[in-house]
Amino acid sequence: MSSPFSGPDRPSGGPPRLPTPPSGWPIGSYSRYEEAQRAVDHLADNDFPVQDVTIVGVDLMLVERVTGRLTWGRVLGTGAASGAWFGLFVGVLLSLFSSGPGPAFGPILVGLVTGVVFGIVFAAAGYASARGVRDFSSASQLVAGRYDVLCQPRNAERGRDMLARLAMRPPSEGGTAD
Question: Membrane-crossing residues (predicted)?
Fold first, then answer.
């Protein structure tokens, strides 16, 4: 029987080289990642061979949380800020190679001003080309509907028993070792 946890494509002790579906028997299922992480931490604290364990997110969703409305002011301000950082970086690099006694603030100032101007121009061009199609800013996150903890068959029964005992503990005891 072949497994993604062994074979010629896997370096000893490391993860599979190619994307492979997880294997193993389910030993726990949790609605939040923190709960699955707590379960694996409990196994590790109790000398369980956690290299046989995998946390698998099931029913994946891409959640995009809208953080605000985009306006010309916000777009130009963000462009100016990002351009300023890049310009400052370039200016500092140029000042390191300037010949002359003492600190050279000229290249830093030129880099900063040039960066702000180009940042504003590029941000304005990008926003104008969108023509109001996406007038909001957002942050994306990949989340799962549930998190299953899988274990290789050789230790699955022991892991399932350990997690069952963890589930019977009062919440105040947490995931600490006995």
Answer: 75-98, 104-128
Distance from C-alpha of 88 to C-alpha of 114, rounded to nearest angstrom: 9
- Would the pTM count as exceeding 0.85? no
146, β-bridge pairs: 58
Q: Is 141 helix (H, G, I), strand (E, B) or coil?
A: strand
The neighbour count for residue 32, using CB atoms within 10 Å, is 12
pLDDT-derived band at 171 (thresholds 50, 70, 90) equals: low
For the domain 25-65+143-169, what is the CATH code? 3.30.70
Would you kindly state where each structural domain of the chain is located, as residue ranges? 25-65+143-169, 71-134
Q: How far apart are CA 5 and CA 64, in angstroms?
A: 34
Instruction: Give CB contacts under 8 A, 24+ apart, made by 103-112.
Output: 111/87, 112/84, 112/87, 112/88
- 3-state secondary structure string across the chain: CCCCCCCCCCCCCCCCCCCCCCCCEEEEEECCHHHHHHHHHHHHHCCCCHHHEEEEEEEEEEEEEEEEECCHHHHHHHHHHHHHHHHHHHHHHHHHCCCCCCCCHHHHHHHHHHHHHHHHHHHHHHHHHHCCCCCEEEEEEEEEEEEEEEECHHHHHHHHHHHHHHHHCCHHHCCCCC
Dihedral class, residue 13 (left if φ above 0, else alpha if ψ from -120 to 50, else beta): left
